[in-house]
Specification:
About 30% of the residues lie in helices and about 35% in strands. It contains 8 helices and 11 strands.
Length: about 240
């Protein structure tokens, strides 16, 4: 990599987790349970939680009987996740653009809009080719992404949030390819500024990416309850694909 990418800094700070601490763990657990029921996964299935953060989904998958490996680029997140390491639950620092050589998996989960972070569109293919290589024959892939079309149509350009005594000033914009978020705040007398940048990938673009990297699109869902996907109305774009 010729330059340090935005996520290498932002995801590795405690402030990232402060800003997003509102995540609903009960909703996430129900989502995981519904996915496992839908996929009909047996206890002991080898699964990969790709871009696992601090491992909340990994721990849920493990508690429900899966053998789980969690990978993330953030050393700080993996350091915290690794405190929960146990039989059948392991974590490692890893870049999703490259295969994790140690084993293959029956299912790969990529959750909470952990895709499309890169400036280059080719990097999306690199990620999916890496996933393809890590999956067993007929292995399954779940990608939980935002519904970009709805997000763009309802984009809140400016917002202020105060969490744990820190006031975050948020600015959002869409440049035709990426959704940008500028994050500014002050803590302990210091000014901070971080950026987020996610490609606004549509279902059409995902389908093209999957077809180009050896996957078959099986089904799409539009929310954590696994209701059908509607590009104009759904909050999420949840993709189920199979390695072919």
């Amino acid at each position: 990599m010729t330059k340090k990418e935005w996520f290498a800094d932002w995801f590795n700070t405690p402030y990232y987790h402060t800003l997003y601490k509102h995540r609903d763990d009960q909703e996430a657990e129900l989502f995981i349970k519904r996915l496992l029921d839908y996929l009909k996964l047996k206890s002991g299935t080898e699964v990969l939680d790709l871009a696992c953060g601090k491992g909340r989904h990994s721990r849920m998958l493990h508690a429900l009987g899966m053998r789980v490996t969690g990978l993330d680029l953030s050393e700080a997140s993996i350091r915290e996740a690794a405190e929960f390491t146990s039989e059948g639950l392991n974590f490692a620092v890893h870049d999703m653009r490259y295969p994790f050589e140690k084993q293959q998996f029956d299912v790969v989960f990529n959750l909470f809009t952990s895709f499309g972070y890169f400036d280059e569109l080719d990097a999306n293919e690199a990620v999916l080719k890496s996933v393809h290589q890590m999956l067993t024959v007929d292995g399954q892939l779940i990608i939980d992404f935002m519904n970009a079309k709805k997000v763009i149509s309802q984009l809140v350009k400016q917002e202020e949030k105060t969490i744990d005594g820190i006031t975050f000033q948020l600015e959002r914009a869409f440049d035709g390819q990426h959704i940008h978020k500028q994050i500014r705040f002050k803590d302990n007398g210091r000014d901070f500024h971080f950026s987020e940048r996610v490609q606004a990938l549509t279902i059409t673009e995902f389908t093209q990416l999957l077809n180009a990297t050896g996957f078959e699109l099986i089904r799409t869902f539009g929310d954590f309850s696994l209701q059908p996907f509607n590009e104009n109305e759904s909050d999420r774009l949840i993709i189920h694909a199979r390695r072919i």
